[in-house]
UniProtKB/TrEMBL annotation:
Role, per record: The FMN-N(5)-oxide reacts spontaneously with NADH to produce FMN. Requires the flavin reductase RutF to regenerate FMN in vivo.
Protein's UniProt keywords contain Calcium: no
Source organism (scientific name): Streptomyces montanus
EC number of the protein: 1.14.99.46
Protein's recorded name: Pyrimidine monooxygenase RutA
One of the protein's GO biological processes: nitrogen utilization
Length: 360
């Protein structure tokens, strides 16, 4: 089973808290994180794209790097780990992104993939005059399907004459192409429509864990993805997303988590809740609704594994046993310390990582 890291391209990572580590996103920080991940045998790193933050006392995500240029730099600074950049489909045309992806793939042959971001926060795009209107909430996956189709045609054939509702190509050409005519596509939608999109077009899809120390709570979502993939006859791997809060003892880890939760940046959370509520078409399983549920919004309601190194290792092994799971993507409260502890204290205890069972 693969293990990856969701690198902090935005300030303060994924904790909307006044007591969690406060830091700015820089190339040097992310290079150190990804190199340490590579050192400890992690398999992939992914960077999101965020174009406007939530404000608040912590200025949460008000400071963000750009995904493709960051990953191009990291491609040149690493040797083995796979790298995924995120494309905001409302801001970057598919033919340009196809060429950008080939460029990064030429830096790190066979080590690059593209994560599709359909866009659910109007404020990110309206600030640039790019928000197409609220009809986007209902047709964003139809747009994404055309987007991916254009890229795949260019990668495999070197030319596209695709004609759709959102994109029209006219003898659009691409050269050079990736060596095998393919670059992996990742999706992350949690709604039924998002799952169907992933099943039809992606190689991997992220599944949000949920709750605290409930590693199997994502089983139903993973089963839904597998069901949709079976209908298409495609092999789509589930990549589960969890935050790890680990320490020497369960009690010490729980104390850290409680402190982060008790010191949530309420103003930033209020902004996020407002943005999430703008999509009137969203169902309860959608990403926008899920991440802003009040009980766990301090870390986007992602599944959180809190405990000693032994406890976390055991729970990660439980996740690995969920049918359809091909990997787990991790975030940490403190990334450099977290990856070091994962590599030396957690991973050696994991049954699902037998090739990494000794301390690095």
């Amino acid at each position: 089973m693969d293990i990856g890291v969701f690198i902090p391209i935005g300030n303060n990572g994924w904790l909307i808290s006044k007591s969690s580590p406060q830091y700015m996103p820089t190339f040097e920080l992310n290079k150190a994180i990804v190199r340490k991940a590579e050192e400890h045998g992690l398999d992939f790193a992914l960077s999101m794209i965020k174009l406007k933050g939530f404000g608040g006392e912590t200025e949460f995500w008000d400071h963000n790097l750009e995904s493709f240029t960051l990953m191009a730099g990291l491609a040149a600074a690493t040797d083995r780990i796979k790298l995924y950049a995120s494309t905001p489909i409302l801001a970057l045309p598919p033919a340009i992104v196809a060429r950008m992806a080939v460029t990064v793939d030429s830096i790190a042959p066979g080590r690059f993939g593209v994560n599709i971001v359909t866009g659910w926060a109007p404020g990110e795009y309206s600030q640039m005059g790019l928000w197409p209107g609220d009809e986007h909430f209902g047709n964003r996956y139809a747009r994404a399907a055309e987007y991916v189709t254009v890229m795949k045609e260019l990668w495999s054939e070197g030319v596209s004459d695709f004609k759709g509702e959102f994109y029209e190509m006219d003898d659009c050409v691409l050269s050079p192409r990736p060596e095998n005519g393919h670059i992996d596509i990742v999706a992350a939608g949690q709604s039924g429509t998002g799952m169907r999109f992933a099943a039809e077009h992606a190689d991997y899809s992220f599944i949000l864990g949920s709750g605290v120390n409930t590693p199997l709570a994502l089983s139903d979502s993973t089963a839904t993805l597998m069901h949709e993939a079976k209908k298409t006859g495609r092999d789509v791997g589930a990549l589960s997303l969890f935050m790890v809060i680990a320490d020497e003892t369960d009690e010490a880890a729980r104390a850290k988590w409680k402190d982060y939760h008790d010191n949530a940046d309420l103003a930033a959370l209020a902004y996020m809740a407002g943005e999430s509520a703008t999509d009137k078409t969203a169902d309860d399983s959608s990403t926008a609704r899920t991440i802003s549920l009040p009980e766990g919004a301090v870390n986007f309601n992602m599944g959180t594994l809190v405990g000693s190194y032994e406890t976390v290792a055991r729970m990660l092994d439980e996740v690995a046993e969920v049918s359809g799971t091909k990997g787990i993507m991790l975030v940490f409260d403190d990334f450099l310390e977290g990856i070091e502890n994962f590599g030396t204290r957690i991973q050696p205890l994991m049954r699902s990582r037998p090739d990494h069972s000794t301390v690095a």
